[in-house]
Amino acid sequence: MRLKITQASSEIHTDLVAAAGWALTNELYTCSDDMSICKWQMTGEAGGKVCDLEAYSTDLQWCPVRTKQAGSDIFAVACTDGSFKLFAKTGRLEKSVEAHQGACISLRWNHEGTALATAGEDGVVKVWSRVGALRSTLVQSEVSVYSLAWGPDSDQVLYTSGKHLIIKPLQPSAKVLSWKAGEGIVLKVDWNPISNLIASCGEDCRYKVWDCFGRLLFQSEPLEYAVTSVAWSPDGELFAAGSFNALQLCDKTGWTHAKQTTDTGSILNIAWTSDGTQLAGAGGSGAVCFAQVIDRTIEWQKLAATLEEVNRIRVHDVLNETYEDLEFKDRIIKMSLGFGHLVVATATQCSIYNVNNWNTPHIFDLKDTVNLIMQCKKQFLVVDNFNGITIYTYEGRQVSNPKFQGLRTEFLNHESVSIANDTLAVIDRSDRGEDKKDKKAGVACAVRVFDSATGKQLGEPITHNLEITDLALSHAGNERKLVFIDRNRDLYITPVLKPHVVKMGTMCDSVVWHESTDMLAAMVDQKLVVWYYPGAIFVDKDLVHLTKFVKETNEFGSVPKISYFQGSRATIRKSNGTLLTASVSQYPQLLYEYVGALQWDKAIRLCRHVRDSCLWACLAAMAVHHKDLNTAELSFAAIDDMDKLQYIQHIKQIPSEEGRAAELALFRRRPEEAEAILLQAGLTYRAIKTSIRQFNWDRALELAVNYRTHVDTVLWKRRSYLASVGRQETNPRFLQYAQSVEIDPEAIKAKIEQEKEKEMSRPGARRVG
């Protein structure tokens, strides 16, 4: 990935350019010390002067939201006389507001466009309404504030204070967070609402990346000159940093994609287009540079697609050494390659290519700029701010348009939304549950799950007691599973249809499902961990550690991230941008094929051939899940798990199918499910016996009383148990029934035998051989 820099041959500003901002129509407006505001086209061609100013300008930003009223496109300009001015798109002055003593240095609209924050040379930060009415004086300090930014929910303001960064909530009683951000004065700061990451730069010649708690995630090596500007791309995946005659494009983790030289002097301000394809830099020499993001490469199996120009993609077949050039009439905004298809979104259209036929794509029109494309095997989703989330087939037919109250599509990214063949999962950022740990309201603690075919929500949201930062849906099979990472970097898994959240690991940085199987890969404490059968955690937790592969090495570095997991390879990107490939066993994929086709004999032969206890453990869990007792018996014997082997042999002797299903539910530690199976099948005595075996005496007595059978059996078993442990009965209910129910051990034994014969005579009853 790199930046293609263009600079106008004839400059229209004669003095320092202080700031730049893109209008919603993708026209660039710049303000300069020559006291003028000028307009530019996306191509870098000058569009002429818009208006003149009466004072020197320091900052400019467009209101991010356009209202339905005519002439509602407005931008704000900060001036050195302490005022800020609101201008219409035509350059007409709408309002001038005296805001600060000394210069008004920085201003920013909140994400909804309903409030404007300004910072000044007087050390004051103020919040204003859209029309310029003062709402509050948020900060009063003795140090000039050079830059500020709004938090993701527009309920906090981040500002600079000398060498420090400070987060000030709008609520007066809320806690203020402050930390030292550099050895020199911090000049610029930006806070991305999607990734929730903060970028800063300053006179110490470094740029840095922080999380929202002030923890340093990345720090650059010292540059030659002070870093004077920094700005996030709209999707939060990239940020740009500017210094003297230099512009750097960086990944959100901090490593540099490209460093380009300019002829602009110090780049004082950076502005991104709303689609994230282009940026502009305001130069201290009076020049304005335009930079297009190109050479973006995405890979899938043997194919690599590279954005070589703003409207051209080259697809490289690595195995066959063939190339295919795809030309588009508009600039390319987003592209995604996977599951046999390349999906490309331009400014006006979406094109869908089958990797086996590059000549006849399916094309449909778009109504707004695409923020995100995500694929699965049968369909893909497109996210824009006009339609929200829209799911399409690979023929271009719209499937559904899932929505819910509070959905903020502008904040969705690959970490907050996931799609599978029949399911869509979205982190609900409108959920205002209370964080039980630090009582912080307004964190995303819920995941909403939708049927992708209808767009309707499936059940209640899956809730968690901490903020959910990342999620992913499994792709293979019919039993969909969801994994997510919370703010503490703990990894959890749950079935989608019947949620049952279980913790899988800690210190997790990223997680990815295998493309064609149910294998799961995660970076846990800087190690690659692959669960060959993560569903084992719902079958038998004791098998989980036997079914995972751990690659312990120092080569991944700190904060590595898994890019994709295909075949027998996982591709990991290090914190410095280097791609590494880690190989895993290819045999679990074969095992999935055999088990999916219920070819248990072939699965057993495969395990015998490989002689790997990990593979046998996977087969044991799969066999229990599919209720194949013979295969489960062989598998537990192979891994020398004698207690589970004996239990499987016990289950095989149960004559009724419902009885065996109930025992397998007990094996999976689901007693309520086992009881429900038995009661529904009319096996009341077996349900009572199950509660007795678990020493759940109250439930056993309750069932016996409710179904008016075997009350004496429960009392006799209870009495025998207490006698064996040398204790007296103290339970009031048992004492009550002991007085009114006669206990005859011989009659009880005869009744139990009758129950066994009755179960044996049920239609289809047989013991598994």
Q: Major beta sheet, specifics?
A: 6 strands, antiparallel
Which secondary-structure class do the elements indicate? alpha+beta
User: How many domains, as an integer?
Assistant: 3
Please tell me how large the radius of gyration is.
32 Å
Low-confidence stretches: 432-442
How many E strands?
53
Percent strand equals 35-45%
**What's the helical proportion of residues?**
10-25%
pLDDT averaged over residues: 92
CATH architecture of the largest domain: 7 Propeller
What would CATH call the class of the largest domain? Answer: Mainly Beta
Distance between the termini: 62 Å
What is the spatial order of strands in the main beta sheet?
Answer: 1-26-25-24-23-22
| CATH topology descriptor of the largest domain | Methylamine Dehydrogenase, Chain H
CATH superfamily of the largest domain: YVTN repeat-like/Quinoprotein amine dehydrogenase
Q: Helix segment count?
A: 13
Sum up the structure in keywords:
40% strand; 3 domains; Methylamine Dehydrogenase, Chain H; single chain; 769 residues; 6-stranded antiparallel sheet; alpha+beta; 4-stranded antiparallel sheet; 53 strands
How would you portray this structure in words?
This protein is of the alpha+beta class and 769 residues long. The chain folds into 3 domains: 2-294, Methylamine Dehydrogenase, Chain H; 297-592, YVTN repeat-like/Quinoprotein amine dehydrogenase (Methylamine Dehydrogenase, Chain H, 7 Propeller), CATH 2.130.10.10; 684-769, no CATH class. The protein contains 13 helices and 53 strands. The strands form 13 sheets. A 6-stranded antiparallel β-sheet has the order 1-26-25-24-23-22, with no helix packed on it. The longest helix is centred in the last third of the chain and has 16 residues, at 745-760. The radius of gyration is 32 Å and the shape is elongated. It starts with a strand and ends in a 9-residue tail after the last helix.
